[in-house]
Design brief:
single chain; seven-stranded mixed β-sheet; hydrolase; Rossmann fold; alpha/beta; 8 helices; globular
Length: 246
């Protein structure tokens, strides 16, 4: 197919002959480039797309969107041209919530949902990270180890990163699960055993959000356990996408 032009979708390593696609959703403050290694690692067996939210990198001049369901509405519209073959969804942290709400809206159920580092949609915590001042928000990002120290020490870069990050946290913290039919696709939930943002019990509750198969995998590490277990996670994704396609 001819690649549709969209500010929302990044296709770093096109794999037009792959039997399935994987759409990846970034964490709060993250960007599509976080998934460049995923695209490289899975091509040519999987055609990987990464979602670029407004307010960051080449979309930094666009207004941030601080509502998960609004993000999902807009992403679904952009994904329509890409649903000519089975599509899996992968989201880390905030991205898992966006992926879940996208899955609820797709006309055809995704092949599989990979929910990483995020408690189940029905498990809410009252937090106010988006209300922190800039210094404390920077400290929070440093604590989670998801943003490079060099970026956090660069005042110019920080001025570009923080508004989008704050909007993302506002989106997550204002999200409330709306009861409805469970997904029908398999769900693989993943979490680090030392993750302060999502405990194993909170992540295990993803099983209530699908009538399909459910699997929980726990890794050594914190919120960004992916950094140390990238190869294992990619292998799991690759294994489950072909199985879902068949």
């Amino acid at each position: 197919m001819t690649s549709p032009v969209s500010p929302w979708v990044r296709r770093f390593v096109p794999a037009p002959d792959a039997p399935a696609r994987l759409v990846c959703f970034p964490h709060a403050g993250g960007s599509a480039t976080y998934y460049l290694p995923v695209a490289r690692g899975l091509a040519p067996s999987v055609d990987v797309l990464a979602i670029q939210y407004p307010g960051r990198q080449d979309r930094r001049h666009e207004p941030n969107i601080d509502d998960i369901e609004r993000l999902a509405d807009l992403v679904v519209a952009e994904l329509a041209p890409w649903c000519d073959r089975p599509v899996g969804l992968f989201g880390h942290s905030m991205g898992a919530l966006v992926a879940y709400e996208v899955a609820r809206r797709l006309d055809t159920a995704p092949s599989v949902l990979f929910a990483s580092g995020r408690r189940a949609p029905s498990r809410h915590r009252d937090t106010d990270v988006h209300r922190l001042d800039d210094d404390r928000l920077r400290a929070e990002l440093a604590r989670l180890s998801g943003t490079g120290a060099g970026l956090l020490d660069d005042e110019d870069m920080l001025a570009m990163i923080l508004p989008a990050t704050r909007a993302d946290y506002r989106a997550v913290e204002s999200y409330r699960y709306r009861p409805g039919p469970p997904l029908t696709c398999p769900v693989l939930a993943m979490v680090g055993d030392a993750d302060t943002e999502a405990t194993v019990d909170e992540v295990a509750d993803w099983r209530a959000h699908t009538s399909g198969e459910f699997e929980l995998r726990v890794f050594d590490g914190g919120h960004f356990y992916l950094t140390d277990h990238a190869g294992t996670v990619l292998g799991m994704v690759a294994d489950r996408l072909p199985a879902a396609v068949r």
